[in-house]
Write a structure and sequence with these properties.
By secondary structure, this protein is mainly α. It is 61% helix and 0% strand. It has four helices and no strands. Helix 1 crosses helix 2 and helix 1 packs across helix 4. The protein starts with a helix and ends with a helix.
């Protein structure tokens, strides 16, 4: 289980790094995607769409709005895999 979470974590972080062009060291699980990493609403939509594509899942608008931190996004993907 931990290995799967680690893999998901790495993939989600890479999506965020690629979309926001931020340093890997800044994309920690406690980082706020908007406040700490500087994503605007359009970039948030892009990140959600990229996560959906990467993991072949659908993310409804409500949970997507709850992606405040990197951990929130990772936890959603982990939960959707069960």
């Amino acid at each position: 289980m931990e290995d799967a979470r680690s893999d998901i974590s790495e993939r989600v972080k890479n999506i965020i790094i690629g979309q926001l062009a931020v340093e890997k060291s800044t994309v920690v699980e406690d980082a706020s995607i908007v406040d700490d990493l500087g994503a605007d609403s359009l970039e948030m939509i892009q990140i959600v769409m990229l996560i959906e594509d990467e993991f072949e899942i659908a993310i409804p608008d409500e949970p997507a709005e709850d992606f405040l931190t990197v951990r929130d996004a990772i936890d959603f993907v982990v939960a959707s895999r069960h």
